[in-house]
Design a protein that fits this description.
Layout (H helix, E strand, L loop, with lengths): L7 H22 L1 H4 E3 L9 H5 L6 H20 L4 H34 L8 E3 L1 H11 L1 H13 L3 H32 L5
Parallel strand pairs: 1-2
Length: 192
């Protein structure tokens, strides 16, 4: 195999889904008593499956298989310039790494609240729009250092990672716009 690092793509895609479900389970144990949200999952595609805690999900498995093939096969069987391959790898690792890092952070916070429930009291309700915006802004913590590294030590891998971080922000922005549009439509009186 010319580029074994691409095998991380399906591993990270499965990890993303299963860490999401693990987070949803842990959130319900104590954290969810204090922070009320419309959805745990930010991605609208998976919200219903995560809410149902659907551990075996044929749609997700198919997405991992098809997505991995669409990425890995061209990298292995098409003669592509190495800088391009490194850029794609950087992009994918940044996107998937950011997502998995967020999941691990959530799991640690949820476990902390379970272990030390006396350190939190009260209840806050967060709109889904706020949760999406919060996630968008927190992702800047990845983009800013990556951009600085790219300025001082440019390489296809780092530039690809910057592109991946920007894509994560763009997707969040798109989810926010769609959510707000749906929210406005649902509050408008019928017949308007």
């Amino acid at each position: 195999m010319k580029h074994p690092a691409f095998l991380l793509v399906p591993v990270f895609m499965f990890a993303d889904y299963f860490l999401t479900l693990a987070g949803a389970v842990l959130k319900d144990r104590k954290y969810g008593d204090h922070f009320k949200t419309e959805h745990y999952e930010l991605n609208p595609i998976w919200q219903k499956d995560v809410a149902r805690k659907k551990w075996l999900n044929p749609r997700q498995i198919a997405l991992v298989v098809v997505g991995s093939c669409l990425v890995i096969l061209p990298m292995e069987f098409v003669e592509l310039p190495e800088p391009f391959v490194q850029g794609v790898l950087g992009c994918l690792l940044a996107v998937l790494g950011m997502v998995i890092g967020r999941h691990l952070s959530n799991l640690m916070i949820f476990r902390y609240v379970i272990r030390k429930p006396d350190e939190i009291s009260g209840q806050v309700t967060l709109t889904h729009s706020l949760l999406l915006s919060w996630s968008l802004y927190q992702n800047l913590a990845v983009l800013v250092p990556l951009a600085l590294i790219a300025v001082f030590s440019p390489s296809p891998l780092v530039i690809g990672a910057c592109v991946g971080a920007v894509l994560v922000l763009a997707v969040h922005w798109r989810w926010i716009r769609k959510h707000r549009k749906r929210a406005r439509a649902s509050t408008q009186p019928s017949g308007s």
